[in-house]
Specification:
elongated; 51 residues; 1 helix; mainly beta; 35% strand; two-stranded antiparallel ribbon
């Protein structure tokens, strides 16, 4: 039977919300798209999407 893995991004006492951002990035070398995943605090979401 498979075990269920539960990952939490919150620490006790911290009240921040985190968001997983997935961006597609085109490689200049091959022209193929790859995906870059980041977990950022909700306050820094706009900065993560710009860069």
């Amino acid at each position: 039977m498979a075990k269920k893995v539960v990952a939490t991004l919150k620490k006790e006492g911290a009240n921040k919300q985190f968001i997983k951002v997935i961006k597609s990035v085109k490689s200049e070398k091959t022209g193929a798209y790859t995906f870059k995943e980041e977990i950022v605090p909700q306050e820094l979401l706009q900065d993560a999407l710009k860069g």
